Amino acid sequence: MSRNEETFYPGPSRIHLAAFPPKERWDDWTELDSQAWPRRKERRYQLVPTTCFNCESACGLLAYIDKETNQIQKFEGNPENPGSRGRNCAKGPATLNQITDPDRILYPLKRAGKRGEGKWERVGWDEVLDDIASRIRKAIVEDRRDEIMYHVGRPGEDGFTERILAAWGVDGHNSHTNICSSGAREGYQLWMGLDRPSPDHANAKVILLISAHLESGHYFNPHAQRVMDGKASGAKLIVFDTRLSNTATHADYFIAPYPGSEAAILLAIANYLIQNGLYNREFVRRWWNWEEYLEQRSEVGDQRSEDKRDVSVSGQEPRSGEIFIETELTNERDSKGLAESINMSRLRREENATTSQNNEQQQTFEAFERSLKELYGSYTFEFAAKESGVDAKTIEEIAKLVATAGTKLSSHNWRSVTSGVSHGWSVARALFMLNALLGAVATEGGVFPNAWNKFVPKPIHTPPHPKMWGEKTANSTSISRAFTTPCGRTLTASHGSKR
Ligand code: SF4
Q1: pLDDT for the residue numbered 181
Q2: SS3 of residue 83 by DSSP
Q3: What is the spatial distance between Cα 205 and Cα 42, in angstroms, rounded to a whole number?
């Protein structure tokens, strides 16, 4: 038998780890008791798959249940889990502490003294449920729904609680997200109508990370594995981090911009791609809402012209830089003034006709490309260097590297700069723009909307979102999208494929 055959685990992990018991033997697995050493005492286990929830990565674990005592003896990685593939961070096996910790709260407690006195009394579940349910009911019946709030650290489910609360007409679903990932989510949401990216680091050519992904970033264990897989296959790693994190130590390019200035660097990279025609033209033409943009731009232009005339006619002074049509209107609307008004109306009609003719000519993709060049032209490497404190030459080198990625640019930004600075959401937005420019979206080695990579059953009945408190979140789906998704899946009411 070759070494590979001895050690290869055939499950989703596809890795060589002899330590994993093959799943055919999970019902009855025998190991030597390490504590009995040097005696050779055998212990028999049943291995039960479970999930670590010491962070949201939700890695797979195997609970080793001693067949003699029926107690969990230890936790190890589950090689059948497609996310963690048998690998865990130190917190995974340490889950055992939560099973046996003497300070665990095993039953409901009710405050028995004043707040802060530390006095509690044990109560039964029925009492607790009746107490809380009757308070919630009273608030609903008395239409005090905004006095009900449900706070959860990490839901660990996909929308069930939200449905319950919506059915009650309550919008008080709270979590840490407001001060965590909401900024990043907004940036992604604006691009693709879904608020989470799912990067394919393992198959990427260039990996661009803004956060610490190898030890403390989001989904760090599953991501860390894929980042290292990608690197092992030759991917270049770029890391923006304010500190020399574990991720940064593995980077080909590590830069530490002034916190909050990351978007300036990303826009400079975008500008480099745009000015040098290094973006994926066909992807942009097909998937960006450039027609919508041009339409709105010309509407804004028309409106501005109207405003300028109105201001001129009403006798107000033009602002600096504005070009007004001069008239000889006087404040007293005499017959000369009336004639001028008529002439103005005709002039407007004629101009409108010319404008719409021009507009028709300008609604081309080439016009959009020209517009992109104008819009982003000021985001030079020098500008980004001034904003971020990073050398312009280094930013240029990074931009050139990003340009080589093609559709294999995997990028990720979560929390970090998006939560700690004003307008942090624009960092995630500018980052995903690079993917959208290169067409590295839903491609091997690119970034997927995360909902495409996981199954979430859609409930039959979904109550409408309550119209209170969260009017901004309730209306978020009406935000105009700059981008709709590939593969014919239009996620918003906006444009679909432009094949
Ligand atoms: S990364 Fe660590 S803490 Fe998070 S789920 Fe996986 S094993 Fe648990």
Answers
A1: 87
A2: coil
A3: 48
How far is residue 215's CA from residue 262's CA, in Å, rounded to a whole number? 21
CA of 210 to the centre of ligand 1 (A): 20
| Final residue before a domain boundary, out of 100, 127, 147 | 100
Identify which of 91, 154, 220 to mutate to test ligand 1's pocket (most ligand atoms within 8 A of the CB).
91
Once rounded to an integer, what is the mean pLDDT over residues 446-465? 86
Secondary structure of the chain: what % helix, strand, coil (to 5)?
A: 45, 15, 45
Residue 483 pLDDT level (bands cut at 50, 70, 90)? very low
376/158: higher pLDDT: 376
Q: How far apart are CA 255 and CA 208, in angstroms?
A: 11
Q: Are strands 109-111 and 120-122 parallel, antiparallel or unpaired?
A: antiparallel
Q: What is the pLDDT of residues 272-290, one digit of tens each?
A: 999 999 999 999 999 999 9
Is 82 found in the same domain as 20?
yes
Q: Is residue 385 included in any domain, yes or no?
A: yes
Question: Tell me, what's the pLDDT at 13?
Answer: 54
Q: Ligand 1 centroid vs 206 CA: distance in angstroms?
A: 26
Q: 231 C-alpha vs ligand 1 centroid, how far in Å?
A: 22
The whole domain housing 167 covers 109-171+465-494
> How many domains are there within the chain?
3
Distance of CA 261 from the midpoint of ligand 1 (Å): 31
The verdict on 162 and 187 lying in the same domain is no
Same domain, 66 and 204: no
In a domain, 411, yes or no: yes
Q: What pTM was estimated for this model as a whole?
A: 0.78
Q: Is 276 exposed, middle or buried (0-12, 13-18, 19+ CB in 10 A)?
A: exposed
H or E stretch including 410? strand 409-413
For a mutational test of ligand 1's pocket, the pick from 50, 89, 219, i.e. the residue with the most ligand atoms closer than 8 A to its C-beta, is 89
- How far is CA 344 from each of CA 20, 300, 327, 347, rounded to the nearest angstrom? 84, 21, 9, 5
Who lines ligand 1 at CB under 6 A?
A: 52, 54-55, 57-59, 84, 88-89, 91-92, 220-221
Both 280 and 403 in a single domain? yes
Does 456 map to a domain? no
Rounded CA-CA distance 70/72 in Å is 7
* pLDDT number for residue 338: 40
pLDDT digits (tens, 9 = 90+) for 316-350: 433 332 222 223 333 333 444 444 544 555 555 55
Same domain, yes or no: 36 and 115: no
